[in-house]
Structures are given as C-alpha cells and as structure tokens.
Design goal:
Elements: E1 13-14, E2 23-26, H1 30-40, E3 47-55, H2 59-76, E4 83-84, E5 89-92, H3 98-108, E6 109-113, H4 120-128, E7 134-136, E8 139-141, E9 143-149, E10 154-161, H5 168-182, H6 204-207, H7 215-231, E11 235-236, E12 253-258, H8 261-273, H9 278-293, E13 302-312, E14 326-334, H10 336-340, H11 344-363, H12 371-375, E15 389-396, E16 404-406, E17 412-423, E18 430-437, E19 440-447, H13 459-473
Parallel strand pairs: 6-9, 11-13, 15-18
Antiparallel strand pairs: 1-2, 2-5, 3-10, 3-17, 4-5, 7-8, 9-10, 12-19, 13-14, 16-17, 18-19
Helix pairs in contact: 2-5, 9-11, 9-13
Amino acid sequence: MATPPAPEHHLWLPDTNASLPAYTRPLVGSELFTYKFSKLAAGGYDVSIGVKFHSTLAKSDLQTRTRGAFERLRFHCPLIAASIDDKAAWVYTPVQDDSDREAWLQGAFVFEDRGPDLDFEDFISSLTQLRLPYEVDGRSLFFRCYLVAGSEPDYALIFHGSHAIMDAWPTLNVLSLVFGWMSVDSPLEKPVWGTEWNNLPPDPVTATGGPCATWDTDGAKLYEAIAANRSRQAICLTLGDDPVPTKPPGKPIRIIHRFTESESRAIVAVTKANECTVSHLLEAAHCLALAACNPPDPAGEADFGAEMTIASLEPRLSKTHFVSAFAHLPVRIRMTDILKNNSKVQQMQLTMQALKEQYKQYMDNPCIYHLLVAQKPFATPYTRPQFRSMLTNIGVTEKRLRTTWKGQGGEPIFEIDELLLGNRMTTAMTSLHSWSIKDALYLQLQTSDMWNDADGNDAIMQKFVAEIVRHVRLLLPDVSK
C-alpha cells in the first residue's frame, strides 16, 4: 500500500459562489469520514448527546437562560449553524442582522414540555430515528438543541447533530460552556455578530501544528500496519453472520448496564494493578465476549478487529474547537493462542496487554492524528470491514463537565444526574460506549433492530452485554453488588 503525500492545511476561504458573504472549507479527516458514512448509511451514526438534570429555577427562567446560552454558543462555535454543500464542504454564512439570527434560533432551539409522561430514554431513542438535516424555512440544520421538561424539577438538555460536528469529548466541553452561561442571571457581554466567522474551527492538520515532518517514515509505518491487517487471512471475531434486514431501520436496540459504585471503584483499581486502563479492560471484555457468544473454529486462526479504535484530538485543541476531530488506530489482535489458554482470567489479562501494546505503538506515532486526513475516507468504493462491533470509552464525564452548578449567589441551581447518548443505527454494526458519572461506570450497546428475532426480542444483544459484564467481573474481587 503506497503512502500518500503528507496532509496539508485546508483553510477557511470566502465562498465566491454564495449570494451572501460566506466562508467555506472542505470537510477533512473524521469530519469527512462521519459525514460520508452518514450519507452512505441513511444517516448512520448521526448523534445525540446530552444530560438529564434537575434545577431549582422556574421553568420559564430556565427556558430563557438556555435559549440565550445556546444563542451565545453560535458566536463561540459558529459551525453549529453551518451547512454542508454537495461537494462535502462546510459553508458558513455570518449573521446578517437580528432577524436573521432570530430565524436561525427559532429552528435550532426547541423547548418541549412533556410533563410526567416524559421518558428520557424514549426521547433519545426517538431522536435517533430522525434523519438529518432538519429543513426549516429554507435552512438546512445539521445541529439542534433540545431543552426537554419532565416532571419538575427534571429536565434534559440534548444536542442532536451530525457526527461531523459532534464527538463526545468536544460536546462535553461545549455543554460545560452552556451550563456556565446558564448559571449567570445578569446580562452577558453582547457578541459582535457578523465577526463570529473568525471562530470557525481550523482543519485537523492546522489545529495540531501543521503537516507532520516525519510523514515519509512514520506515516509509512501506519500504512504498513493497515496493509498488514488487510492481508490477514484469519477471521475476525463477530457475533455471527449479519442479519438480513426485512424492513427499514426502526426503533434501535439500546441496552444500558450500570456497574455499582463499588464495582466501578474495583474496576479502576484492577486496571491500575495491571498497569492498564479502563479502555483496555472494557475492550478486552468486548473481544472475549464475542468469542464466548460465537466461538471461532479452534482449528483456524482468529483475530480481534478494532481498526476503528478512536483517538481524539481533543487534548490538543481549544475548548471551543467544536467539530469532529479524531483518528482511527488500526488495532488488530491475534487471538488464537490467547483463546487456547485455559484460564479465563489470564485470557483477559493477555488481551489487555496486547491491546495496551498496540495502543501505545500507534499513539507514539507522531503522524497518527493525520492518518484519517491522508486516507481521504470513501474516496474509493466502500469495503465493509471484517469486524462488526466497536467500543469507545468516553471516560470520566466530570473531567469535562462537572455535575453541580451554582448561581451567582453560591446556591446550587443545576445538578446533572445522567449522561444521555444516542446514535442513529442503520446497519448491522454494533456500537458500544462506556463512561462514568458520579462514581458509576456505564456500558451502553446500540444497534439496529434488524438483530431482533422473529418475535421482536433482543436476546442476542442481551447475551452479548451480559458476556461483556461477566468478563469484566472476572478480574474483580468479591465486591458488594
């Protein structure tokens, strides 16, 4: 596999084809990957991220503050009001006047008062069944904010948008900004509208310091790894043959497991004892759960494919850099010998160590953050990967979004209770996410309802989640459940 030239800058430039002053740059890297996948898969992986919270504010006051904070967000993160043209380029038109700003806000901010009938999980599920963009009065909206009221004092604040904009960590950073603005009851400095285009996010090459100086050597190593993966004849562990869809995607399968606080503490302790991370532990459990649910032929070779393992660029970006920015680590673990080990505990430990070594190998490569830019996603006909499930560990929510917010007088006015996450699932791919909040670790599975049996039961996925949990618990001491 030939190594392409080192990726270059893609700057924002005036859009000479626009009827109003506008700025444009092509989608690149994970922006392009997620957008093109969505186009290819009928909106696949469009995302909803938000929080369930309770508030001491009056409902009308909360609605006013949230709407004002979301309006301010456009100034600091203007890409939320951008469109995407037919050449896969961002197009941003600065605010022309107050009526233009208000017209956008009317379509992009939605308050829904559901009262006691609100089920937050059902609401997230309903968003995953919507196809972006929203079309409102001639505007194509790839991002919308929902403030949803249940029985007072329970609310949810949820962003629904294209994954080309929304990755988990940057979205948590932005939610933190919004809750900070919502906590202030006095008027904030008025933005100078029309200049907000200066806050449009740079492309990932520019944002990470420019082209990689060692691309010819270090970039080549990444392409060699990808070529080696693709040449492997071993099967990849999966849950079995893909189901054949008999109808358009419907209500997704969504399963959430919450580890107790004592289990969650023990999970962190055991990863430290093994000099690994929670990501290594959960990915190892994911791998071995696949083998347990669908054992490979012992006479053949088996690999664990995790070639879309996500490494976020977020640690190298500003808190207002709100656009998808991640790399794929081409991780692939040879599992044949590990699965022959008679000790299930040692299988977990060996898999964790194999994952740790490959993670480090790729993360130490200075060109990894530019790999997806160089690959030009979907520039050639799409080849379905051998693997069928992927896991992303979001980590500790409070590292980016604290759960208690106080007013200017020091009194608590917002308490965040839960993280809410949903993806539009239109293919046989199974998506796993994990995160912790308030000292408890969560594991969530999402996939298309095409995996349900003839009676509409999700037994296959229930077993899969149960096996992941069981493998995690293999390494834990006898903690109180």
